[in-house]
Amino acid sequence: MKTGNEQRDAFAAPAGRREWLAGGWALFWENPIGKIGLILMACFALMAAASFVPPLLDPMYHPMHGVDPEISHATGPSAAHWLGTDFIGRDIFSQLLAGARIAFMVGLSAAFMSIFFGTLIGMISGYAGRFADTVLMRLADMVMVMPTLLVVLILSSLFGQLRIWTIVLLIALFRWPGVSRIIRSQTLTLKHRPFIEAARVAGASHLRIIFRHILPNVLPLAMLYMTFRVTSAIIIEAALAFLGFGDPGTVSWGMMLQWVWKTGHMFQAPYWLLPPGICISLLTLSFYMLGRAMEEVLDPRLRKEGESD
Amino acid sequence: MTMEIRRYILGRLFQITLIFFVILTVLFLLFRLAPGDPVSRMVDPNMTPEDAQRLIEQLGLDLPMWQQYLIYLENFLKGRFGISFHYGQPVSEIILNRLPNTILLFTSSILLAAFVGVFLGKIVSWKKGERIDTWVTIGALVCHTLFLPWLALIIIWVFAYWIGWFPLTGMISAEIWTDPSAGLLRKGLDIAHHMALPLITLFLIHFGSYLLVMRSSMLDTLREDYILTARAKGLDEATIRNRHAAPNAALPVITSVGLSLAFSINGGALTETVFTWPGLGRELVFAVSNNDYPLAQASFLLIAAVVLTANLVVDLLYAYLDPRIRY
Predict the structure, then answer these.
(1) Which of A276, A281, A308 sits opposite B260 (nearest CB)?
(2) Which of A280, A305, A309 sits opposite B262 (nearest CB)?
(3) Which contiguous run of DSSP H or E holds residue B318?
(4) Could you give the CA distance from residue B241 to residue A10 in angstroms, rounded to a whole number?
(5) CA-CA distance, A266 to B203, in Å (whole number)?
(6) How far apart are CA A277 and CA B151, in angstroms?
């Protein structure tokens, strides 16, 4: 119970943050879900870091262009190709490593951007109130009901092949409303706290109040929602690639699954079908677990739905 | 009280109509402003010049933008979406034909997932901290984060290809539906047989999150005073759980269903595509792959309408079940 009170104090004022972090870490590490999530994520980070190695060893291990000169069809695992090769003789293991890098890149950057938009809009909406609040929140309602994957699909049909960074930006543009609602309600509760009133009386400008006093207090919450956004961004990019609308210049796990599926190898090549799917599922699981464990640390009474998409 | 409900329903209806109108307008603008020729996007390049001319006039593609917009709205209200490039049929016929299939799969999978999720969440919350609780929670997390198209492929591989219990793809078997002696029951069973695997896929993806919501909501509810009262009255545990705690704890699940509708429709489209289930989502993916713009536009609009309607239904259900919510 003691930790609960400490947390609330830390939430109210930025002072004593280091102790709070240490206590929070202990609480996080006690939770098996947080521990599993973090370990899993570390494994994938290692994979992403290792993805630079195989192309250096031999050009045939290049995930996109490297082809084993002796192989021209899908083959099972061997000493030279630990997970076998795909339909034109590219190494599946090095593709899998490169996919980890893409997944982290897409997940983290899309999540960061959507959190950035969401936090900014949420703070403005909560702090300004009245007209701005109504307009922004109605906009949020509107964007919230849009199925992101299908929206990006329609856009790719109109604007042609989308590059990976366009996809990342689009995901971010459609995934901020959930965050902005949470940040807005947090801002509303902060707005009338004494330290904000004090800052106002001392003559701080609105911008200063928002960025210097409100932002540090909503940041932990924003970081929490970032973990959930990472999972949804990875899933959307993978689904898009799977349907054949990914960036053709990148080797992502969704892309690999698209190749298995489209070339009709799904019943013949389990060594090719299983790894990318397992990786997508486990990486999203790790971020999701991390988020849930963080949620329990930040506030046990916080809304627990944890948003599903 | 009924007055308030009516006002609430009307308010939501107005909001949802407004959102749909905005989507309609944004789609119009996107189709006109995207790079390339707007006419070639709505008129099949392979049409005869006379047919093309008639379609251009019907859609008003030779008129100024604002007139085009009015014609677009009028055509929408009359259900005229142009001619599909691929099928060569009016788009409205195609999508109306696909709509029931999507609604069937979508509704049954969400209802099944919600009921099972609520039921299991209720049971698990009663065993908090025990081994079964930990395992079911982890299992639910894993199911929830499985990559849907991959899960679909694995399920097809195992149950349709390897064991062979279910058909690989599609919604009906031609030989049963062309057989004049086949009764309604046989046809219904045929659809159910085809629907089993897509249904299981969507169910597995969804039930986990509903279970987790129900579990934490139950744990919150158990701290309420009226549960203490029920205990003090000496009611047995099963009654407290099923009659006193569960109905209230299930409310957040309904909210969660509403919040995840957009996610569910994404999943529905992926499932339909992998299983070649003839629904709207598959039609949209197909249309986008083949640059069949009229079909893509109309399928997207109809899918948006389905999501919005489902949202409305969820809101109404919530208002009906929880008399405190009348905003």
Answers:
(1) A308
(2) A309
(3) helix B293-321
(4) 36
(5) 22
(6) 8
Which chain B residues touch A306 with a CB distance below 8 Å?
209, 212
- Mutation target among B18, B32, B150, B204 for the A interface, most CBs of A within 10 A: B150
| Alpha helices per DSSP H over chain B | 2-33, 38-42, 49-59, 65-77, 91-126, 131-145, 148-155, 174-178, 184-221, 225-232, 237-239, 246-249, 251-259, 261-274, 280-289, 293-321
A-chain residues within 8 Å CB-CB of B34? 158-159
| Best of A148, A266, A308 to mutate (most B CBs within 10 Å, chain B) | A308
**Which 8-state DSSP code applies to residue A91?**
B
Chain A interface, best mutation among B41, B145, B327, by max A CB count within 10 A: B145
- Kindly list the averaged pLDDT for each block of 10 residues, start to end, along chain B of length 327: 75 88 90 78 79 80 83 85 84 91 92 92 84 86 91 91 84 77 81 90 92 89 86 85 85 84 88 92 91 89 90 84 61
CA max distance for chain A: 76
Separation of alpha carbons B287 and B295, rounded Å: 6
Q: At what angle do helices B131-145 and B91-126 cross, to 10 degrees?
A: 160
Task: Give residue A233's pLDDT band: very low, low, confident or very high (50, 70, 90).
Answer: very high
In order, the DSSP letters of A206-224 are HHHIIIIIIHHHHHHHHHH
pLDDT for the residue numbered A14: 47
- Residue in the structure block whose two tokens are 């009245």: A130
CA angle B68, B70, B74 (to 5 degrees): 115
Q: Residue B22: CB partners within 8 Å, gap ≥ 6?
A: A142
- The residue with tokens 């409310």 is B251
pTM for this model (two decimals): 0.87
Handedness of CA B82, B87, B89, B94 (dihedral sign): negative
Q: Which residue of A has its CA nearest to B254?
A: A305
User: How many angstroms separate the CA atoms of B200 and B206, rounded?
Assistant: 10
- Rounded distance between C-alpha atoms, residue B70 and residue B99, angstroms: 26
The Cα–Cα gap between B234 and B253 comes to: 29
| Phi, psi for residue A97 in degrees, rounded to 5 | -65, -45
Residue entry with tokens 């090095």: A94
Q: Where are the alpha helices (DSSP H) in A51-175?
A: 53-57, 92-128, 130-144, 148-159, 164-174
Q: List Cα–Cα distances, B89 to A59, A253, B92, B251, in angstroms.
A: 50, 37, 9, 44
Q: Please give the structure tokens belonging to residue B136.
A: 């079911």
DSSP category for residue A202:
T
The C-alpha atoms of residue B202 and residue B152 are separated, in whole angstroms, by: 9
What is the distance between the terminal CA atoms of chain B, rounded to a whole angstrom?
12
Report the DSSP beta bridge partners of residue A91: A85
| Residue A295 bridge partners (DSSP) | none
Calculate the CA A40 to chain-centre distance: 15
**What six digits make up the tokens of A85?**
């090769």
Instruction: Specify whether the CB–CB gap between A62 and A94 falls below 8 A.
Output: yes
- As a whole number of angstroms, the distance between CA B37 and CA B175 comes to 44
- Cβ neighbourhood burial of B50 (10 Å; 0-12, 13-18, 19+): exposed
Q: Which residue reads 């995934």 in tokens?
A: A175
Task: Report the residue count for chain A.
Answer: 309
| Mean per-residue pLDDT over chain A, rounded | 84
Comparing CA positions, the residue from A190, A184, A178 lying closest to residue A226 is: A178
**Position A198 pLDDT exceeds 50:** yes
Structure tokens at A270: 């389990």
Percent helix, strand, coil in chain A, to 5, is: 75, 0, 25
